[in-house]
């Protein structure tokens, strides 16, 4: 008996976000055609170098940046951009930022920081009990011990837990975590990642984790989407993508991890300017496969230089936007 795939909780369809250039130049295509689904209870890692568009994509999924083309749907309904609609949406989808020091007002106690969302959304019920429950779920126990403390009295890991508690207090269905452990000591990172996984197990929370760290993606994600120059270039089950990457960009990112076999692949130059996306494959100017002649031997070098690749589908199947990888494996 076949099971019907679960309908996505959050979905981006044909999403584009462009920012106008100064002095009348070409607009910067920060997100240049993205389909992405996140199912209930699923953790998706969005990975890539700085400047690849992943934070802009996350902000667009949150309704903080309106797309110039395409749409975002949540629970089957298109996202609307009126103040009232966005306020209702943000009860259900919460953002966790990478820098807890910047996320917390130094003049507010932990209690006030966590209660802020309830007050904005006029949450009904017992505020004190809701704050205590959120702090406890975030691993700050007994919660009452933290009520009257200020951010400067906490460790970095405790501050990040307060930020997570501030998101949890509204009982959302999805967290968008932007580099959630980037500013933390290595000794604390594992604790926060374990917390996020426990929240998924206990509360059924879905999460989009934005990161440049493939090691983090390996530890936390069910599925990985690799982004380069405004598009997802490889996606699929986390274990499959991270143990057998098909796209040369993914291979290069993984090659620099300490446990990776072989020599690291050093990519030349920086990602191209998003206002001047090259013809053909957008990775071709830095591609080690094209530079080494392997693409020529596979008979796809001309296509790499001239033929754009279509937007990958947003579902969970393994996909790659690479002429060379598809020549080696036509099933991709």
Automatic annotation (TrEMBL):
<dbReference type="GO" id="GO:0005524">
    <property type="term" value="F:ATP binding"/>
</dbReference>
<keyword id="KW-0547">Nucleotide-binding</keyword>
<dbReference type="InterPro" id="IPR013563">
    <property type="entry name" value="Oligopep_ABC_C"/>
</dbReference>
<protein>
    <submittedName>
        <fullName>ABC transporter ATP-binding protein</fullName>
    </submittedName>
</protein>
<dbReference type="InterPro" id="IPR050319">
    <property type="entry name" value="ABC_transp_ATP-bind"/>
</dbReference>
<feature type="domain" description="ABC transporter">
    <location>
        <begin position="10"/>
        <end position="254"/>
    </location>
</feature>
<dbReference type="Pfam" id="PF00005">
    <property type="entry name" value="ABC_tran"/>
</dbReference>
<keyword id="KW-0813">Transport</keyword>
<comment type="similarity">
    <text>Belongs to the ABC transporter superfamily.</text>
</comment>
<dbReference type="InterPro" id="IPR003593">
    <property type="entry name" value="AAA+_ATPase"/>
</dbReference>
<dbReference type="InterPro" id="IPR027417">
    <property type="entry name" value="P-loop_NTPase"/>
</dbReference>
<keyword id="KW-0067">ATP-binding</keyword>
<dbReference type="InterPro" id="IPR003439">
    <property type="entry name" value="ABC_transporter-like_ATP-bd"/>
</dbReference>
<dbReference type="Pfam" id="PF08352">
    <property type="entry name" value="oligo_HPY"/>
</dbReference>
<dbReference type="InterPro" id="IPR017871">
    <property type="entry name" value="ABC_transporter-like_CS"/>
</dbReference>
């Amino acid at each position: 008996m076949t099971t019907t795939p679960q309908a996505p909780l959050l979905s981006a369809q044909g999403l584009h976000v462009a920012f106008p250039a100064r002095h009348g130049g070409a607009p910067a295509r920060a997100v240049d055609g993205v389909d992405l689904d996140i199912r209930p209870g699923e953790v998706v890692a969005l990975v890539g170098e700085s400047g690849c568009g992943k934070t802009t994509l996350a902000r667009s999924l949150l309704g903080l940046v309106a797309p110039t083309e395409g749409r975002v749907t949540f629970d089957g309904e298109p996202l609307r951009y009126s103040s009232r609609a966005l306020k209702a949406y943000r009860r259900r989808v919460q953002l966790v930022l990478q820098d807890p020091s910047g996320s917390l007002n130094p003049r507010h106690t932990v209690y006030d920081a966590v209660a802020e969302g309830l007050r904005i959304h006029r949450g009904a019920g017992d505020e004190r009990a809701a704050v205590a429950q959120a702090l406890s779920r975030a691993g700050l126990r007994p919660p009452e011990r933290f009520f009257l403390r200020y951010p400067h009295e906490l460790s970095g890991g405790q501050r990040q837990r307060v930020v997570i508690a501030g998101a949890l207090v509204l009982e959302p269905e999805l967290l968008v975590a932007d580099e959630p452990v980037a500013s933390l000591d290595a000794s604390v990172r594992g604790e926060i990642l374990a917390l996020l996984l426990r929240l998924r197990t206990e509360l059924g929370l879905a999460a989009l984790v934005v990161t440049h760290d493939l090691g983090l993606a390996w530890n936390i994600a069910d599925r990985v989407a690799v982004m380069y120059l405004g598009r997802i270039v490889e996606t699929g089950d986390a274990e499959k993508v991270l143990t057998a990457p098909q796209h040369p960009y993914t291979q290069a990112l993984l090659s620099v991890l300490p446990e990776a076999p072989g020599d690291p692949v050093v990519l030349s130059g920086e990602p191209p300017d998003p206002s001047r996306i090259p013809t053909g494959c957008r990775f071709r100017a830095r591609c080690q496969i094209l530079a080494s002649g392997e693409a020529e031997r596979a008979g796809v070098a001309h296509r790499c230089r001239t033929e754009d690749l279509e937007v990958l589908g947003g579902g969970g199947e393994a996909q790659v936007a690479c002429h060379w990888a598809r020549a080696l494996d036509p099933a991709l």
